[in-house]
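Supplementary notes for students who missed Thursday's class. We covered one full example, reproduced here. Read the sequence, then the structure, then the short commentary at the end.
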Amino acid sequence: MTTQTARLIRKTRLSADTSDFAFQLASGTFAGLEPGAHIDIHLGQGLMRQYSIWDWSEDHRQLHVAVKREDNGRGGSRAMHDLAEGTDLQVGQPRNHFKLQDDDRYVTLIAGGIGATPLVAMARALATSGREFGIHYLTRSMDLAAMDGAFRELNLGARYHLHCDDTDGPLDLAALLESIPADSDVYTCGPEPMLTALLDASSALRGGKIHFERFAAATNADNTTTNGFEIEISSTGAVLPVGPDETIVDVLKANAIDIDVGCAEGLCGACMVDVLDGEVDHRDGILSSDEQASNSYLCTCVSRAKSPRLVLNL
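Structure (token representation):
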């Protein structure tokens, strides 16, 4: 996986638990800077995490990510918050599995907590293009509304709605979906309980589609069944067994088949490959239900097979 050297040039506290991190490349520019994109940040000792990009400079040498500190998390946010300004580290090039579609549909953005970061970039792009849209930013309290200032700097007026649970009470998501224009799309990112509630209320949406990005793989995935299966490499015809305790990535690497790996949790898409034949047991958190149903690709770090064999385009 290609990386570049970037320096943390500025760290700014946004709320009680969230800070903004501004990174600048030592040379060259970032490619693929667009709303919804995220970046791999290598934090040393094999620790790599992905963060959504919410802003960047016109010359594409600098970008911003906002990170919520999770003391009981997997260590990435603690390592990020421990970084000192002036630190050099390796970063990947931006990748995007949460693209803002280029059409004329009305758009509603629903952001939950730190999930607001990709939606700030979307709101900026929508405002610049003149498209009609609205945004709802959901937080537990005003002191945790880390991205409120970024939204307000866009001068969105009545298009922007901040909802704080402690003062406004629980938001009726079904009523919100019923209130938006027919045949319009929703883009949402936030914690799993919010996404689950929103998807459960999706029948209230009058046409259109819900596009979402998760922080974790779907909790309703059946990860208990771990039968073995086979993968076939289309370029060579080699058939390789994948044991119950192995991942596809494990088997590929053991057989000297190089493949990029990012989060290893089915959230970043770095290890995704095309599937030419077979039925996939999807266990990722980035593909939509329609994309999963197509059986056209899978995340090799977490997904498995429902059929005895998968033919991979490798």
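Commentary. Residues 7 and 88 are 4 Å apart (CA to CA). The chain has eight helices and 18 strands. If anything here is unclear, bring it to office hours.
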